[in-house]
């Protein structure tokens, strides 16, 4: 059995960890405060229609459901989290991974809001930066907050990586 190269393992660990932090945030918002959060089945539906030549929906909820859309949406959610972790680690390098700091992780988290604002939301019928939603400002603030939470999750997961991966007896320098 071949071991996973350390950079790939770090991308996976940190991306999955940060996405879990975001998902826990969503659970708190939904169950604790009744705030609606992302429906990954609808994201899966949107993705499933792309190979069929349909990129835009008015709105996605009115588009016929697709078998396996929930699994597809959740898989995509975690794959994107891993890709954004790879972006952070690629741009910040090994030194950052050994000694994570909040600012780069938070910046990457906030910059990733470009993807939903300009790709996903328009494609799913919500308009650019949620402009077609009932309360665009509220939708934008929720997206920005979620992506900031993801950035904090990148930072926390990187520190957990350092703690888990530090050689026994060496600790951190």
Fold and architecture overview:
This protein starts with 5 loop residues before the first helix and ends in an 8-residue tail after the last helix. It has a domain of 93 residues. The protein is globular. It has six helices and no strands. The longest helix has 30 residues. With 173 residues, the chain is an all-alpha fold. The mean pLDDT is 93.
| Biggest beta sheet attributes | none
Give the rounded overall mean pLDDT: 93
Number of strands: 0
Strand percentage: under 5%
Give a nutshell description of this structure.
Helix 1 crosses helix 6 and helix 3 runs antiparallel to helix 4 (102-111).
Features:
mainly alpha, 173 residues
Chart the SSEs and their pairings.
Layout: H1 6-33, H2 40-49, H3 69-98, H4 102-111, H5 114-123, H6 136-165
Helix pairs in contact: 1-3, 1-6, 2-3, 3-4, 3-6, 4-6
């Amino acid at each position: 059995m071949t071991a996973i190269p350390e950079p790939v393992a770090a991308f996976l660990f940190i991306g999955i960890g940060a996405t879990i932090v975001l998902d826990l945030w969503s659970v708190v918002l939904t169950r604790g405060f009744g705030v609606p959060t992302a429906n990954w089945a609808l994201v899966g539906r949107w993705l499933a229609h792309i190979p069929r030549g349909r990129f835009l929906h008015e709105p996605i909820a009115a588009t016929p459901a697709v078998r396996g859309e929930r699994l597809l949406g959740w898989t995509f959610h975690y794959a994107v989290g891993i890709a954004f972790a790879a972006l952070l680690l690629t741009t910040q390098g090994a030194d950052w991974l050994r000694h994570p700091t909040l600012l780069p992780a938070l910046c990457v988290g906030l910059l990733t809001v470009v993807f939903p604002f300009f790709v996903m939301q328009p494609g799913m019928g919500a308009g650019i930066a949620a402009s077609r939603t009932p309360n665009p400002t509220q939708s934008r603030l929720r997206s920005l907050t979620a992506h900031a939470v993801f950035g904090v999750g990148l930072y926390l997961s990187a520190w957990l990586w350092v703690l888990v991966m530090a050689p026994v007896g060496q600790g951190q320098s």
